[in-house]
Amino acid sequence: MGVVLDTNILFSALISPHGPPDAIYRAWRLARFQLVNSNAQLDEIRRASRYPKFQSILQPARVGVMVNNMQRAIVLENLPDTFATMDPDDAFLLAMASMGQADYLVTGDKRAGLLQRGHLERTRIVTAAVFCAEVL
Question: Nearest 5°: phi and psi at 16?
Answer without folding.
Answer: -130, 125
